[in-house]
């Protein structure tokens, strides 16, 4: 039978997260204290995170057990389906086989609840009453708001201002789950007020919003900060995606040659790729190709510098070594709001430096064109962020056609675009434009990188 969908039962869902740090050929560079420049300690992080998440951040254990309370909530939507994109293959007239793991079936509409649920759970166990966070397109904010409702934890979301106005229904979803949503930069924090004083019309950035959320969390012992990407424990929680995909491809009697994911902070790419990368790190599947795709208007991996930098614009976070455009860089307001971050996950950046991952940047218009081609073949409208993975997967399939070879391509369709229809309206009306990064702005932002002795 020509299967379209491969599913797992709840009893087949993974019960542990995969920690790729256990298999790396060399350890990551240390995280540094923003004040002293010395390696940070667990005590230094306690004002922001509960102990369990700090332990997961630095753990070298290969497998970390998923708590039963988290698994119980995961079962609301997991395991998620794996699809064989047979109609897209036919539309492209390609010999390639294309599979996609669909994370848009979650209550938040994306992969983000995979980490929001455990973060809220561990904070609740630690006695935390309130969580602060940032969000770009709103997928992360929606997911943490959902998790806060499940565990009765108050959630405050600083939403990048351009997305706050571009995506009112995402904001409404967060508020429906009980979160308070604030347009960032705001006048609620010193970090926000500084930006507004210098740039009253600032459209905001994830770096600014992170600074606001961290500032509030650091001022109250009953408040902690939650991050939707970038950090090791966040990438860890997402590996349930790839583990399920491994089992589902075994059902299909197949294995990928190419794995694709979009990248903003790195969590959804890590989620689909890391469980497959384990085999490559062991010396197996040496020809397995990984492609991380980012927006040309915020080209962190393809144009950024691998250096120590702050995770936020206000310089309140620890210093991490990552690919960065500079913490003061503010990308233009393109629609893939979840990818508008100046830095990349340190763990993912380290693996890129090891030469394991290929990186590429795609323009906004090209990605929307690919998203519509996919939607008309497969019936799912991708989020603007996911369109970057769709674009690269289609390009790889067309390359197979040109070369007359059949390869198996797997990508992560990390969320649906139901709350992003204005972006599609604008695209089809011809009012969207490609925005390339400003080399002058990036040079200025990179000139402010901290000097590490």
Automatic annotation (TrEMBL):
Signal peptide span: none
Superkingdom as given in the UniProt entry: Bacteria
EC number in record: 4.2.1.20
Pfam families assigned to the protein according to its UniProt record, in alphabetical order: PALP
Pathway: Amino-acid biosynthesis; L-tryptophan biosynthesis; L-tryptophan from chorismate: step 5/5
Cofactors that this protein relies on: pyridoxal 5'-phosphate
Top enzyme category: lyase
Example of a GO MF term: pyridoxal phosphate binding
Any GO CC annotation of this UniProt entry: cytoplasm
Keyword Lyase listed: yes
Location of N6-(pyridoxal phosphate)lysine modifications: 112
HAMAP family reported in the protein's UniProt record: Trp_synth_beta (MF_00133)
Subunit-structure text: Tetramer of two alpha and two beta chains.
Entries under PANTHER family matching the protein: TRYPTOPHAN SYNTHASE, TRYPTOPHAN SYNTHASE-RELATED
Task of the protein: The beta subunit is responsible for the synthesis of L-tryptophan from indole and L-serine.
Protein name in UniProt: Tryptophan synthase beta chain
């Amino acid at each position: 039978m020509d299967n379209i969908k491969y599913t797992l039962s709840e009893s087949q869902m993974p019960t542990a997260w995969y920690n790729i740090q256990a298999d790396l050929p060399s350890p990551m560079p240390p995280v540094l204290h923003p004040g002293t420049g010395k390696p940070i300690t667990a005590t230094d992080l306690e004002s922001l995170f509960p102990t369990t998440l700090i332990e997961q951040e630095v753990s070298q254990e290969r497998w970390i057990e998923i708590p039963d309370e988290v698994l119980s909530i995961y079962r609301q939507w997991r395991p998620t389906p794996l699809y064989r994109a047979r109609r897209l293959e036919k539309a492209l007239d390609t010999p390639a086989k294309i599979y996609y793991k669909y994370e848009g079936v979650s209550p938040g509409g994306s992969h983000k609840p995979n980490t929001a649920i455990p973060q809220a759970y561990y904070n609740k166990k630690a006695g935390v009453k309130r969580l602060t966070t940032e969000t770009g397109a709103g997928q992360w904010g929606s997911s943490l708001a959902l998790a806060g409702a499940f565990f009765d934890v108050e959630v405050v979301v600083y939403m990048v201002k351009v997305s706050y106005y571009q995506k009112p229904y995402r904001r409404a979803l967060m508020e429906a789950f009980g979160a308070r949503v604030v347009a960032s930069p705001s006048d609620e924090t010193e970090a926000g007020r500084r930006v507004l004083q210098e740039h009253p019309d600032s459209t905001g950035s994830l770096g600014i919003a992170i600074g606001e959320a961290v500032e509030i969390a650091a001022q109250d012992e009953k408040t902690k900060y939650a991050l939707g990407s970038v950090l090791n424990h966040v990438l860890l929680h997402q590996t349930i995606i790839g583990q399920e995909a491994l089992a589902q491809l075994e059902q299909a009697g197949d294995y990928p040659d190419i794995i694709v994911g979009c990248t903003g902070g790195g969590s959804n790419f890590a989620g689909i790729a890391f469980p497959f990368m384990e085999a490559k790190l062991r010396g197996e599947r040496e020809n397995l190709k990984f492609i991380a795709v980012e927006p040309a208007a915020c080209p962190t991996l393809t144009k950024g510098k691998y250096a120590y930098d702050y995770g936020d614009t206000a310089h309140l976070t620890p210093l991490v070594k990552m690919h960065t455009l500079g913490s003061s860089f503010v990308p233009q307001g393109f629609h893939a709001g979840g990818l508008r971050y100046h830095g990349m996950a340190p763990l993912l950046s380290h693996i890129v430096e090891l030469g394991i991952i290929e990186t590429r940047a795609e323009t906004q218009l090209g990605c929307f064109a690919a998203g519509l081609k996919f939607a008309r073949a497969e019936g799912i409208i991708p989020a603007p962020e996911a369109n970057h993975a769709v674009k690269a997967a289609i390009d790889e399939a067309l390359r197979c056609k040109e070369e007359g070879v059949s390869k198996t391509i797997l990508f992560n369709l990390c969320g649906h675009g139901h709350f992003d229809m204005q972006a599609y309206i604008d695209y089809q009306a011809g009012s969207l434009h490609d925005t390339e990064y400003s080399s002058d702005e990036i040079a200025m932002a990179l000139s402010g990188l901290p000097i590490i002795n």
